[in-house]
Amino acid sequence: MNGTSDEPPTSAVLLDNCYFSQVIFNNVEKFYVPGEDITCYYTLTQNIDPRGKDWVGIFQVGWKTTRECYTFMWAPLPGDIHRDTPVQQQICFKACYLPKDDEYYQFCYVDEDGMVRGASVPFQFRAEAEDDILVVTTQGEMEKIELQHKNLLKEKEELQASCAGLQKQNSDLQEELKNTQDNLESLRSNTENLELELNSLKKEKQHLKELDDCREAELHELKAQIQNVISDKEQLDTRLKTALDHMDQLQGEMEKIELQNKNLLKEKEELQASCAGLQKQNSDLQEELKNTQNNLESLRSNTENLELELNSLKKEKQHLKELDDCRKAELHELKAQIQNVISDKEQLDTRLKTALDHMDQLQSQVLSYEKEVENLSLMDRDKAEELEHLKEENQQLRMSRSQQQQNSNLIKELEEQKGLVRVLQARKKEADEENQKLRKQNDNLLRHLSQASSPAQTSIPASELGGLLFGNPYYAAGANLGAGAADASLRKCPMCNEVFPEDIETSQYEAHVHSHLLECPFCSETFEKSNKQVFDDHMFCHDLE
Q: Is the dihedral of CA 126, 129, 130, 133 positive or negative?
């Protein structure tokens, strides 16, 4: 059945998955005479690249796969493979390999991948009807021939419609193939950009690793310095404990000396001499503590530098995380594009097999890129854990530093108390000046109230009001109560000047006046609520006493 002994490359690709417009068959006859050689003429367009295993086969109309060929011949290669114009080719089929029946057949060009690249119009192997031959048939045979003719015409119309549909489908598939190729080019460019970004990410990761090594070296040096400071602190604690024990002994001796002060004056002088030596020793200890403070200040500056470096490392890690998020977003978009291409592939069927194989390769590359990005995210997570470990060590360093500062705070506390006393004295002086002003205002207010209640009543000095800073509001109220029979309608609050009706009870009026005042629980002195700061300073002075 075959033109040669070699089997041609075939496939189970269906008819709808082929490219029929890449090879065009020319001068195909409607009938070929049985028993004679036939020559097949075809044109290779610029859309096909001929290869050595391409072949031309004769198929019976209605074939489904390329394995159903009746016979075939290997297609010769053109002289110029890399051409830009169509090329005319021809193949001669020997008569001994041709079909013997009168069924419809067609030529098909199949490449070495088993894909059909072109198909001819149908033809038959039988002699053409002669016009001068008289054929005598019966009525039944004539009806049978007419029925067969109608069926052939109907089949011809169906084949023509199928060819038109195939040509339209072929043009649509070529357009879709072009769009798919454009999408593949864009995917390729995106893949290249992603590779460049991954390389930059690797460089940043290497730089971050170098910075981590530098931080570890600096942390090691800092640990050594902390060990030295801890050893110095232990020595100072030992000396301080000895000094405190000695001071306790001296304090016991001082109590005994106070009991025997009159009779042991000579021993008192000796004790004063020993106290002078102790003060000198205390001054030496203060100098040592000052040196310890200087060491602590240097340690604090080193710790602050370490915190700054850790903050910069956090910012770099945050920047790397943002870059990683950008990469993930780009990979997500790339996955969505690949899913769209895969859906287009399912619609295009197996005619886009070559392009889909390339897409599969791109998808495998994207998966490898995703694995690399996952590895980078794991490394970022390890860096974050290292940063947390560094934070814990820094917290421990701060705790040890706070313990060391407790010793220095004992010395600073006295100086802060002295400064606080000076500040309080200054505030007390300002409060006294303000109290003087308020006394004057209070005197004027009482004078005004006394004039309003009775023109003949004289002004009451502030000294007669119990020594209050702002005067006794109940005194003015009592004066008004004394004159209530004469002028009860003029009863008003000395703080807010609110006028009360004449039928108000005295307890209600006193409660209203008392609501404007703050009373000191220690000395029962009263203050206006509007000057709460003066009341707070007054209470603080009691706390100092």
A: positive
